[in-house]
Specification:
Layout lengths: L11 H4 L2 E2 L2 E2 H7 L8 H28 L4
Length: 70
């Protein structure tokens, strides 16, 4: 029997966030397809989600603060 794990509550905008044309989380996970993730890799994914969430919030703040003059 194959163990299947998943990550809950990753917001869609975080999962779909792109840098350089790549969806960050999708690429990270696809590069590790068909193997068991290590504890460090799971922590990396959790940290990526946190950093992307922070980045999206900062981008929204910048957009709202600069929308009148850009």
């Amino acid at each position: 029997m194959l163990n299947q794990l998943y990550f809950e509550t990753v917001p869609e905008n975080v999962y779909n966030f792109q840098i350089g044309g790549y969806q960050v989380l999708d690429k990270y996970l696809k590069d590790r397809k068909n193997r068991t993730l290590t504890h460090d890799e799971i922590e990396n994914i959790e940290n990526i989600v946190k950093v992307l969430t922070f980045t999206i919030k900062q981008m929204e703040l910048i957009d709202s603060e600069t929308k009148e003059w850009i």
